[in-house]
Predict the structure.
Amino acid sequence: MGKVTGFKEFERKNISYAPVKERIKHYDEFITPLNKKEIVKQGARCMDCGVPFCHSSYGCGVANLIPRFNDLVYKGEWEAAFRTLMSTNNFPEFTGRICPAPCEGACVLGINDNPVNIKSIEYAIIEKAYKKGWMKPQIPKNKTGKKVAIVGSGPAGLAAANQLNKAGHSVSVYERDKRIGGLLRYGIPNFKLDKKKVVQRRVNLMKEEGVEFITNAHVGVDVSVKKLQKKYDALILCGGASEPRDLPISNRDAKNIHFAMEFLSQCNSKVEGESFSKEDEIVATNKRVVVIGGGDTGSDCVGNSIRQGAKSIMQIELMPKAPPIRDANNPWPLFPRIFKLSSSQEEGCDMDFNVLSKDFIKDADGNVSGINCVKIKWGEKGFDEVEGSEFVLKADLVLLAMGFLGPQQSGLIAELDLESDERSNVKTRGFATSKEGVFAAGDMRRGQSLVVWAINEGRECALEVDEYLSKKPSMLNSKDGSLYEYKVLKN
Amino acid sequence: MKPICLPRKEGLYDPEFEHDACGVGFVAHLKGEKSHDIVKKGIELLINLEHRGAVGAEKNAGDGAGILTQMPDRFMRKVTKELGIELPEFSHYGVGVAFVPRDVNAGVECQSIVVNVVEELGLEVLGWRKVPTDNETLAERVKAVEPYVYHLFVKRPENLTDAQSFERKMYVARKHIQTLVTKSKIAGTEYFYMPSMSYKTISYKGQLITEQLPQYFADLNDEDFESALALVHSRFSTNTFPSWPLAQPFRYLAHNGEINTLRGNINWMRARESMLKSELFTEDELDKIYPYLINEQKGSDSSVLDNVVELLTLAGRELPHVLMMMIPSAWKDEEMSEDLKAFYEYHATFMEPWDGPASVAFTDGKFIGATLDRNGLRPSRYSLTKDNILVMASEQGALEFPPEDIVLKGRLQPGQMFLADLDEGRIISDDEIKTKFSTAFAYRDWISSHKINLDDLVLNREVKQPNHKTILQRQKCHGYTQEDLKIILTPMANEAYEATGSMGNDAALSVLSNRSVNFYNYFHQLFAQVTNPPIDPIREESVMSLTSYIGEQGNLFQKVDESRKFIKLSSPILTNIQLEKLRGVNELDFKAKSIKILFDVDKKGSMQIALDEVVKEAEDAVNDKYQVIILSTRGVGKKKAAIPTLLATSAVHQHLVKKGIRTNCGLVVESGEAREIHHFATLIGYGANAINPYLAFETIEDMRQRKLINEDITHDKAVENYITAIGKGIFKVMSKMGISTIRSYTGAQIFEAVGVSSQLIDKYFTKTATRLEGISMDELEIETLICHSVAYPRENIESNDLGVGGEYAYRQRGEKHLFTPEVIFLLQNSTKTGSYETYKQYAKLVNSPENEEYITLRSLLDFTKQNPIDIDEVESIESIVTRFATGAMSYGSISKEAHTTLAVAMNMLGAKSNTGEGGEDKERFGTDANSKIKQVASGRFGVTANYLVNSQEIQIKMAQGAKPGEGGQLPGHKVDEVIGKTRHSTPGVGLISPPPHHDIYSIEDLKQLIFDLKNANKYARISVKLVSEVGVGTIAAGVAKAHSDVVLISGYDGGTGASPQTSIKHAGLPWELGLAEAHQTLVKNGLRSRIVLQTDGQLRTGRDLAIATLLGAEEWGIATSALVVEGCIMMRKCHLNTCPVGIATQDEELRAKYNGKVEHIINLVKFMAKELREVMADLGFRTINEMVGRVDKLKTKDNINHWKAKHLKLDKLLHKMHLRQSDTSYQSIPQEHDIDKALDNRLIELAKEAIDNKKPIKESIKLRNINRTVGTMLSAEMTRKYADDGLDEDTIYFKATGSGGQSFGAFVNSGITFEVEGDANDYFGKGLCGGKLILYPPKNITYNPNENVILGNVSFYGATSGKAYIYGLAGERFCVRNSGANVVVSAIGDHGCEYMTGGRVVILGEIGKNFAAGMSGGIAYIYDENSTLKNRINSQMVDLELIEEKKESDEIKSMVEEYLKYTGSKEAKTLLDDWDATLLKIIKVMPKDYKRVLANKPRVKDEQDVSA
């Protein structure tokens, strides 16, 4: 449990960021992790709860054994902590950086104190493991001879690949882009998750473990799904929920209005040395940037825009500003819906809430020059515009970061003629789609979500695929089940 | 002064008078003079002890009474003459007493069997005599099973030259008769029974109340009926339904107590049968004895004890010798002679103690005597008169003699024997008896040449070393979890202590778990409650023993066996070295055989095959003269898994028992599986003599190398610590059943199985209770293979760590729990927001688990829905909520804020909150924060007259779900100023609750305490809290017979502030079982209408309440769920004082975080009631009363597919018992407490002026032992008016003469004084809270008061203040848990001042053993005239000092001066005359803790003074 009275003795301490002035000059990660001594203290704050909410349905998406690794870290048993961490989470180096940490929101200490800094502990464990060389390729003892293709190399695809490879199946991952990682690679800014040092490091390890990666292979477009079905014993679709929510107001066709992902993926590609033609390139330099959407994606747009030297950045949000502390209807252990300045927002942007975009303003050249907005007021049945509150936002570049609607329906889904659910996600029973031998996981199945949930999807799907392939209960770890349970084959 | 009129003497015979007076006792003429007067006195004694017996639903249905006398030769001659039978001279004829069934066919059958057998054995039948009986006053129930009583006269044949051979022949006849009758197919023969058959003694007994005995048997009133002795017994039964044969005395003895180890003793006796050879019995005769050697089917523990005593006596040992063998005293004692120790050790090698509280009175016609077991928990007092009349009884004063006629008054001390030889005409002292038998043979020499200490064996084999490479695999294979390492093993290796846990158990029952569960976990530990006391294994370690012996036991009848050798084990846990020494044993023909208990993992069913082979192999080995059998799990690997060690052990043990060869060998287990205390306890309980837990040792070493064990702990130290911790743990498990020695625990099977098929149990765990069926070999094999497959997977898997476990705390991927994060959140949120809708979501999660996620038995039940009614017709929520109570949670274990919130909420609802055992701040009395239920637990913290009068219900806590049979400890740092005040103790000084109530060692004691408390507050309901276990139903019936108003059956899973993990997980049973058993038993006894039945234990929802009601409860308790509503998030850290939500903590900083609200609790209760009401409407019940016990509305869920749960059969749980017409299924008839007849009514009248107007009164009264609890009601009456302050000293002054009954002066408040000239019985001054008690012998006595006993046991138990002066010897456990009274006494018995926390005790003479054990406060002063007393003081917690300060010296001196003034003690005068010399001989017993606190105290006080 860490130390019995640790939570009374030690304060929570957070990681620190490099000063804004410094960090906006580059695209590198800018956090200063807590030192080992401090991490041990943070571990000591864990109360080893009789009912740890951190790994409940309100907490960690992969049900990390948080109290155990906190305790082991406190006791200096780093390697055991590492093993514990790896037994539930394939990619703690990702989640240790970018997870919004619902575990901390559910931490029991958070009822009346600051929660345990679980994320920093996770980060410390996995980075120590890399440093110490504990992160070695885990090459399966024997192979089953079964072959699995995974479409999409985002966190869900990678987690599924990692798990199935452990189980001895031969895994091939198909990726339409040039590089492996999906949103990890193209969505999340490099300054939050380093592509080469962190993402590629892990991809390389997986290659050594025997996972095959096939890039530039857009299944359903330039690779036939039917062929894959023949070649492989099972197919897992992890194509993500890449269909962005649009803002169909007038003058939407004006130039320099882009979906956030278009901008973010270019930013990330540039970090890895790619360049774009003038007409294709989206740049914020010296522009008045307006980001529509107050979420994490919006924030990522803000951070990149600052680094590109935007003239001004305005982020607007339809919803009201979240309260500084939990509302009565948002009690512990639910994910705290409170306002917190993101690191990117901290770097310099204006924000406005309760703002409805009425229409875009297009200049003579067809470029966007602004947005007609109005303030709104939220009531029980939705919102009303506030009379007389109309205003104009000047804009040279508008980035739409309003979330995602679901998977792309053309190509893959269409070719397989898969059933969808009411939210247009791929419909599954367990993880099995309506087509024999075809499974789906990640955002494509459950809709837009967090990386940690994507990892969980990949893991759980892998377990089901393993059972499908081997026709006996899987010995892979699952989120809820135990290896020590009496198992009967599902389905 | 007007004397109070005592009830007329004949009043004792008056059924209108109290139904109380008796137990076990005897009257004898020391010189052996026979007279009818002795018989009359015996009967009088019996009747005066009636209050110790019990009556059933019908007032005239007793549990049994009887008398055993010498053969009344003159009388027999007279009556046979009338029948035309001619008797030969005395000792040439025998009389068999027979209960012959009334049914004609059965009667004829039985009588003809008797005649045939007797004649076959060469005895001549002289004739039958139908004994005249008068059943007019017998209850209908008793008449229904009443037999005819016959005397059979037989003649000693010429060839039997001595009378003892004749006696033996009649014994064989009686045994054989019983065997043949049992075999008879004729209906009704089962009522046949022969109470006695002897030439020298005869018994008259029946299912009678004491006063019916002489009415029923006219013989006893005949002047010619003469005897020099009369042994009598009045029975209070709880553990068996009353029956004629079970009335006592038996042939040789009458027993007051309980044999806890009965099952083991019976098995061991069975195991010895084939070894029995005797010169005194022929083979043929032995064959006739065996089948009915132990009257197991029909017998009670006492009758079995009698059977074996009889066998061993007739086989050639003297009766006192036999009793010394069977009920040995503790022989660790330093003061005991080496010869006697050797005697005990010799006999220990072949006879395990018959363990349990026992006061046994015995006679063979020549000797009459009594013995007490090592714990001495039953009172036995004796006196001798000038006329040589010797009386022994459970109480003083049961026979009255003029004081001047008494020459001796004594008591039996623990482990002592008291013996009178009527031939020699003298009393033989304990010393003399024991010297005689211990020196009859050179036992010391025998021991030194036949005993081998294990450690002295030569090590001639390699010792296996830890293998860190394979350890993880092997741990997995044996089901080790992360929790085993962290929670179980680490604290044991570090600190030699078992881990403590809190908040009870809400994990799934083993049979409902989805996981592979250790087989041990299916076995639940049983524990003592009410009928026998648990022991304190820490403070009373002197009686405990882990020593056992391995080696052939030989022939039980042979007096000394020259040939055999044995190995002594000082602990049942063997190190690897010890095991290898044993494996390589090479002494004489000692040989060890290792047998692998492994099976093939590849083939289904191979576990059974392997087990059969193991059993066979063991049998062969024993037949091949191997004396050590080692069952081993070594060799587990890819292809081999281990048979569960417990299964293999019990299977082998029981097989060898059945083959009669078990006593030829020692059974040792080398197990990788055994690691926690419960594992060892079950293995030993099912027959293992010793266990080597090699993998636990390896794991500890592995952890040590990984630095998970404290750095300064070496390998050897870690192992030693672990073994010590296991030893302590086993002590605790044994002692909670009241068992002291591992030898009698071995094979005693003190467990109940839950979820195991009876087929498996019958085969391998014979006679263990398993009431619900469950898993069999198939599932057991699967469970084993699951672990094996994780350890040795055939596929690639990623598991590189142990499983999480999740048993002790909720963990994802771990065991299922009732409280999940989701459940807690919904419960808290619903009650906070007042949303019934959210509550329903919560209830749904709990009530209808998805995917067969069963956790509790009730989750397997469903309602049979019929006849729904409109909900408006159902009893209102407001009415239902009054049936709620909160569970007992003491202020001290939870914070003031949390405690008060509950009280206020419950009061607002009209429900009841419970103080818990920590007392209650008197500021709360009379306010809306006053808890209606005041608990009285073994610690008696803050139990004063004022506390009791401020209650509406007084709850006697017999046991607590989380740790039944155990005491508790509140560490000093938790005792702050307010808690100290509330508990009447010193802040900063630790407090210990003893495992037993020291005034409840038996059911009749409980009856007494109930009576005491009723006197202390006649308006309060009295409630008794029990914990579910097999047999709780009969205990509940006993409780009902003891006149309790309420009985609470708690589940084993209830919460706790702190308890050993073993107890939380493994002791007790779910409430469903206990409640159903209690309800059924009460209904069957016709007692249900007398008592409110309440239940608690993880009750969560209205559905739970509905099920509880249908199973028989009309009231319910909630505790954990209420705490959760107050903000508890099940941290399970209560014992660490770090509760982060300010509930289970006294830390100011944390308490500030408390956020619970009264309204939230009210919401919870109302929601639960509302949900219950919905169920009621569905089922068609308008009121709760209609619903109670309606099990027909419950059924087992359809379609249970869970792989284990599907084998359960719940029909016994749902059995509907026939309700008698006079009874109701809920409480409808108030108990008759009979306090309106108590002497106190008169005292209150006499003290009216004082109570009304504070005007002093002084009156004289006369006392008898039947006047129980004198002064208590008077005190209550006064306290109601004046609260704690009471009145000025001596305002109410009574001068009494005679014998004070039990509990004299209990809970007497300030201003009341009793001066008693005479003597008194047990519990004198119990809970004294300000009053003054003076006791001295009558002025005209001729004996020396300093050498004679004046006071019974357990005086001043739980006294909180007041004064007392006792001139004479007091019994054992004087001033136990005294927290403030100042007492002066002449001398006391064993265990004085145990657990004392305050007050001053001055002892002017001897003390017994184990003085000051667990004493944490107060000071005792002992006048040690001859410097002999120091080694009797248990100095674990106290320092011995001299008195140096004048102030202190003066204080003591003035106490002694007062003592002299009140009692006139000559000795006191002598001491005072030379006070300076006296002072030098006074030992001051100063608790270390107390001294430390006192040293700081003046400073604290000064500060307060300044601020004031």
